[in-house]
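Minutes, methods subgroup
Present: GH (chair), OT, SY

1. OT presented the first of two proteins processed in the latest run. Sequence and structure tokens recorded below as shown on screen.
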Amino acid sequence: MRPSWWCIHCVVCSIVTDSRTGATPAVGVYARLGGPVTVTWAMSPIKEFKVMKDYRVLFQITGSNKVTVADKELRTRINDDSLSYTRGNFSFQLYNVTPSDAGQYSCHLDPTRPPYRRIRMQNCGQTLYVIGEYPYRSVCYITAVLM
């Protein structure tokens, strides 16, 4: 029997700073392990871009503001009705959140001329923090990233 009193409403909030610049990132989105979360951010209206996490393309947004889920594993845990890109706001709802979902979601442009390296868009994206319990201990943890 697991003592649940160790982790009653355990939410750890701390300021995470960028180890390179010392800057404090914007407040992120917090999700409970196994639960749903809506990730959203405001940005400059851009016709075409990609949303990435850890070098994986998750979403592709085309000139008609159409959002396509590019990642096959993620496709099974996204509510298609929640995908939205209108007037500079991007959002999606993710179900069954796992620790690997934590991290920085960022926007990237694909250049049309050499060198064909993706360009990360400044001030475009969101950090997702996952809060939950280790399955083998009754302690709380928070998964976070340093940008």
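2. SY then presented the second protein from the same run.
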Amino acid sequence: MEVLIDCYFDRLFEGMERSSLASRHRRRQLVKFFSDVINSCAEAEELDKADVCERIVRAALRYHTISMAENGLVCMLGKFHNVLYVAAKLCYDWKLENNALVAKILDDMFYCEKTFERIFVGAIFGTRVTHFLTGWKSDFDDRDDNIKALIYFLDHAADARLEFFCQSISSQRRFIDVPMESYGQVLPLRVAVQHGAPDILLVMLRYGASTAMDDIPPEPLEILLARLDEFEEASQCPAALLLCLRILLRTVPVVELKVPEHLVEGCGSPKVLVYEQYPNLELWDVIPAERSGRKPAELKHLSRCRIRQCLYDNYALPHGIRHLPIPTRLQDYVDLLED
């Protein structure tokens, strides 16, 4: 059956124009076509639908690999590359559990693009805004569907312990922390903070997104504090930004702000506490005294930070939390679902 699928795949793509899969509509048509093939083959030959889907996804990966091999290991983009997004949509739609296969799709995407922004932008902005920002329309139905798809790929990336070498910053990064090229090489977490989207911010943090790995200052927390400090009183602060701050504060023992390099010598320290830089935010009770540095952080919170770091080191966020021998309420606390 694999041979038949491969041959059919080659014939189908041979008649397509190079730009044929640039349109979301055309990619969706192809996904629907393959879904119909999956249903038909499964019923006719009494096969498992997931097995048929896996064979089609492998054929898509084979097509991409061969097209690169024939071009000196350089991706020709167009339909030769966008077939990966057809494969990714099939994996998500049919909820394939083959971790090695999904990891291969992510590896191939990164090899050609050096970013995963096409997976992230729909979850952060929704399906319409992304087209105006990058010219790419997400393959998933709406923002909620994009978030579910992102979680699907986050799970597989964690299970496969994937890391990617980002040449622009000369370091290894996990899937959640690969910079977004079209957005100035900043991390997805920073884009979510700037957009003021607490729901996707919580998802990213639960999966271990870094709050301090962005090589382009200021850090996401500093951006948020600066925006809130622009208002004259607490009642004017947007609820979404305040919720973003609450969620971010669950991940840090104490808020420390970096001092610009040219001012370090005069300050005597590379960092200052938040109440020194933004006294109004403390007066408004926007930042608890335990996070601002006025009071020591609670042992419970420090324990949460340490446990999460251990789980992160073992690629066990967030699902490993549910295996901890602690009450469910404490599991929710460690999982950032409660203050």
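Chair's summary of item 2: Strands lie at 163-166, 171-174, 256-258, 271-273.
Next meeting: continue with the remaining queue.
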